[in-house]
Amino acid sequence: MILSLALAACTPDTPDTAEAVADDVVDLRLTEADLPALGEGDAVWWGPDEVVEPGEDKMFCIFGTYTGEDAGIHALSTYQNTLGHHLLLMGTTASELDFPDGSVADCSAEGDLSMADLEPLVLPTSVQIGGVDRDLGIDLLDGMAVKIDQGQRWVLQAHYLNTGVDPIRVHDPAVLNLMPEAEVETWAAPFVLNSSDFRIPAQESATHSFDCEVPQDLNVLYVTGHMHEWGTAFRTEQIGLGTVYEQTEWDPEWRDSPPVQAYAPGSYLIPAGSTLRTTCNWFNDTDEDLTFPSEMCDTVTVVYPQLTALICDGEG
Question: For the chain, which domains are there?
Answer without folding.
Answer: 26-184 (2.60.120.310), 187-313 (2.60.120.230)
